[in-house]
Each structure stands twice: as structure tokens, then as C-alpha cells.
Amino acid sequence: MMILTAFGSGLLFGLGLLLAGMADPAKVQAFLDLAGAWDPSLMLVMGGGVAVSALAYARGRRQARTAFGAPLQLPQGRSIDRRLIAGSLLFGIGWGLAGICPGPALVLLAQGKALWFAGAMFAGMALFELLPARTS
Amino acid sequence: MTVDWSHFTPWTAAAGGMLIGLAAAALLLLNGRIAGISGIVGGLLRGPDRAWRAAFIAGLLLAPLVWRMVAELPAATVSASPALLVAAGLLVGFGSRLGSGCTSGHGVCGISRLSPRSLIATAAFMAAGFLVVYLLKHVWGLA
User: Fold this and answer.
1) What is the count of structural domains for chain B?
2) Tens digits of per-residue pLDDT, B29-49?
3) Which domain holds residue B63?
4) Inter-chain contact B62–A44, Cβ cutoff 8 Å?
5) N or C: which terminus of chain B carries fewer CB neighbours within 10 A?
6) Can you tell me the distance from the alpha carbon of B73 to that of A111, in angstroms, rounded to the nearest whole number?
């Protein structure tokens, strides 16, 4: 059952990306182009996403298990360390260069687009696995 | 700053965002998991829990096919060259794993639960994105 719900969530997520315009790299770059003809649409994507999921997280805070009895697994890390900052900056640089982040990369891949990006993204993720494990 | 009103799509943007939020809510309340794409994909490389991750990604990959059954797919313009796409892909893949999240995990889920780490990460990747697109379009003239 939880495989099915994961599948449904992924499908819904992908449809949301398509509807929102997040799967169009040109639109994402137009959002990031503050000095040019700025398209603020993607602020509303984040706003809409946060508005709905915040309700779920507020509810999730009060329960330890899901409707299926699975444990609610929330990130426990609290420290704002160099990995968090450096990783986010590198991610942001790549996001700006192509206008593509991981979800849209997969939605584009399924349309046969930006294949070089998706391939390199998987390679970058594999490269991360070679790093020594976090010590803290 | 000039707002490009002709390309501003507030309703579909907000509705699409809400679908993303609904997907994240379902994954949290039914599966107990964070809908962070980089974490879900990256986790496939090390296991365990490969089954639900693969199912989520299968759903994501099927989204354009399902969409096409009902309507024409929206435009998706990729302007970067293959070399730039490879560089960007490497940075996005490695950076999102090093920073423990991307636009979905930090930007939507993390901000939804007011995680200080996610607020900082989102500020960092947005700032980097704004700067890089400024350089690309207005300094290097590449896009």
C-alpha cells in the first residue's frame, strides 16, 4: 500500500511541476533574472506548496506514526554547517546555469529533454556517495 | 527590476504549487517521509527503502505521459548548451546531496516545518541562482 501512495505522490508532484511551470527551464531562469524582465510566478509555486504542506507538517508534529502505522521520519539535524551552506550554494549555481532542479530534471528526462543534465546530475549524486561519511 | 506581466502566470503557478504541497503532505502523512527529490533519488544509491523511492520516481517520470493523455504538454525550453547542462547537472546533483536538499526538500518541506537549516539553505541556493543568472544574462551574455 505504501508503495502505491509513494507512486501517487510522485505522480501528483510531477503534475504539479508541469502545471506550475517549474518544468520549463526558460521560465525558471526568467524567475531568477531579477535584473531583466522578471517573471515572479515561481514565488507563487513555493507559496502554494508551503501553504498546503505546512498544514500537513503541523498535523504531523502531533503524531509519531502515519495512517499506515509507519514512523514519521523527519530530519533530526540542527547544525548549520559548512556542508549545508557549500552544498546549497553549489546547487544554486547549477540551478541558475540551466534553470533545472532535481524534480524538473526527471520530468524533462521523461520527455526526452535535457538528457545531459539528468545524466550529469546522477553522476554528481554518485560522486557525493564517495565522500567520507559525515563525522558530526 | 521590471516585472514581465505578459509571462506572469499566477493561477497556474499557485495551483501547481498546491499540487506539489499536496504530494508532499500525502508522502508525509501516509509514508512518513519528506518529499525531497534529491534525497529520494540519492537514497536509491545507498538503500535501504529502495522500493518506495523507486515508486515515487516512477510516478514523477510518468507525469508527462499522464498529462499528455489529457492535454498538450506545456512548453519546456532548454537554452543551455550540452557542456553547460553537464556542468550544471554535476553541480545540482553533488550540491543538493552535500547540502541535504534542493528546492523541494528545503524550499517546500523544510520551510513548511520552519526548519532553520532549510531556511538558510533556501536563502543560499536562491541567492546563488539569482547571482548566476545575472552573470549569465547581463555580464556574459550567454542566455
Assistant:
1) 1
2) 999 999 999 999 999 988 788
3) 5-139
4) no
5) N
6) 9
Residue A21 domain flag: yes
User: Which tens digit of pLDDT belongs to each residue from A63-90?
Assistant: 889 988 899 998 888 899 999 999 999 9
Interface list for A 27-66 with B (CB within 8 A): 27, 29-30, 32-57, 59-61, 65-66
CB count within 10 Å of CB A126 equals 14
A135 in any annotated domain? no
Q: How many domains are contained in chain A? A: 1
What is the ipTM metric for this complex? Answer: 0.96
Domain that holds residue A71: 2-129
Nearest one of A108, A110, A42, A33 to B89, comparing CA atoms: A108
Q: For chain B, say whether A79 makes contact (Cβ under 8 Å).
A: yes
Does residue B48 have a cis peptide bond before it, meaning omega lies within 30 degrees of 0?
Answer: yes
- Which candidate from A22, A108, A122 shows the least CB-CB separation from B16? A22
